[in-house]
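Reviewer 2 asked us to include a model.

Predict the structure of this chain.
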Amino acid sequence: MVAPHSIVVKRALILLTMVAAGCQQGVTSPSPSPNPTAGALRPCPLGAPPPAGPQILLSNLPAPDDLAFDNDGRLLFSDNKAGTVSALNADSSVQLIASGLSTPEGIVVQGSGQILVAEQGRNRIVGIDPVSHVVSQWRAFGNRTGQEGIDGIGPMLPGRDAQGRLLTNANYVVVPDSPNGVVWEVSPDGKAVTQIASGMSRPVGAAIDANQHIYVADEAGTVWLLDPAKHRFATLPTPDDVLVGRAGDIFVNTLGDNAIHELDALGRQVKVFTGIRQPQGVALDDADNVYYTEFNDGRIGRVVRSFTLDEPMVTRTSRGTFIVCPSIRRASGFTQPLGLGTGSSLTTSILQLAQPGTSSSGALEVQTAEPSVTITVSDGGLLSQSQKVTLSP
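Predicted model (C-alpha cells):
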C-alpha cells in the first residue's frame, strides 16, 4: 500500500524516464538553458511533454510487487521472488534496503520513516529502520487457514480530524488480514489491535479518503467501503490494491483484466489504464501520477497524469548568485496554472522569481551559502512536486 494522502509529505520527485530494454538506464530530454546575465529574470522553456500512456521506469526485476513512497520521495518496491525491499533514487539508481524477507508484499511508511512490510511467507509485518535498515518484527498474525499470508497493508490513519482534534486511533495502521478475511487497526508500535471489519473473502489492500472512510480491496471481486459500516463500493475483476487520489477519485489495480481503474466517489468508472500485465502494486506521487508494477514482466512503470520535473539547469552568475532553471513537463491536456517557489532562510535569499506559464517553466535566482535548495512546483492546491537542487560550486 502507498502512504496515505492525508499526511502531507513533500516528496522529492523521482526524476527518470527509462527505456524498457535497458534496465535502470535513464533517458532524459535536454534541460533548457537559464539566463545567466544581470537584469530581469526570464522564464525558462517548458520541458518536452512526457510520453502518453504507460512508461517503463525499471525492467529486468525478478518479481516486483508493491510500491510506496518514503518520506524522502524515493519509490520503494518489494520483490516477491528476490525477498527484498529496494528504493528507486532520484538519479535512477536502485538502493537495496532489506533482503532475506519471505515473500515481501505490502509497504507503508510511518511518520518516523520506519518502513513496514508485510512478510507473506511468515504472516507477519516487519519494521525496517530507515537509517540502519535493521529488520525487526512489528506484529505477527495467526493463520490456520492454509491460505497465503498477509498481502497489502496500510494506510496509516491521520493524527487529527478535520477540526484539528487529536484522534484516539491517531497514526494507527490499517491491516487487511488476508487469510482470515478481517481488517484490523493496529497501533503505531504494533502492540494493540482492533477489528474494524469482517466477512470478506481475501482483503489485500486498503486506503482512506478525506472523510476518513476506508476502502478495502477484496480479491474475490469487491471493493468494500467502511464508513464505518461495510458497504459494497464497486465490483471489479480481482482487485489487488486500492488508493485515493488528491481529488478524491479511487484507483484500483485489478489482476483479472490487467488494468488500473479510476473511479469517482460514487464508484462510477472515470478511466481505465489497460495493457498493464499483472499490476500487483500501485502508488500515486504528490501530483497524482500513477506508478505500477508488472509482476510477470519484472517491470515498474508510470503514467503521467499531470506534470513531472526533469533535472534543472543551475548557473552561477558573476555576482555569486545562482539561477535555477526548472524543467516542467506537462502531460497532454494538462493546462492548470502552476507556481514555483522555495523557502527563504537566514542563509538563503530569493532575489528574483519568474513564475511558470502554460508554455514556460519559470526561473529562480537565489543567494545562498547552502549546497542545495529545494524548489516546489504546485497548482496552489492539490498537486505539487518538490525537487532538491544541487548548486554548482
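The CA atoms of residues 213 and 227 lie 5 Å apart. The chain has two domains: 44-50+307-390, 59-303. We have added this to the supplementary material.
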